[in-house]
Specification:
- It is a single chain.
- With 71 residues, the protein is an all-alpha fold.
- The chain is built from two helices and no strands.
- It has helices spanning 13-26, 49-58.
């Protein structure tokens, strides 16, 4: 079950997305979309981002990306 701090204090985007994909696929819905909001780059994931993205695409889960770059 997801909870705040589940992936720790570092930025763990790929593992968080993997968990989100599992939760989205467990629900019955006409549209499977994950909205990713992050304050940084993936610094501690155990899963490879490319593999997670491929898994999402294969399962019909959309993760729209809106990159924001700030100095």
């Amino acid at each position: 079950d997801a909870q705040i701090g589940l992936t720790g204090r570092s930025t763990n985007i790929s593992d968080g997305l993997g968990l989100a994909i599992r939760r989205v696929l467990a629900e019955s819905s006409r549209s499977n979309v994950i909205v990713l909001l992050s304050d940084g780059r993936d610094t501690s994931a155990l899963l490879d981002a490319t593999q997670v993205a491929r898994l999402a695409a294969e399962r019909g889960v959309r993760i729209p990306l809106e990159p924001t770059i700030r100095d």
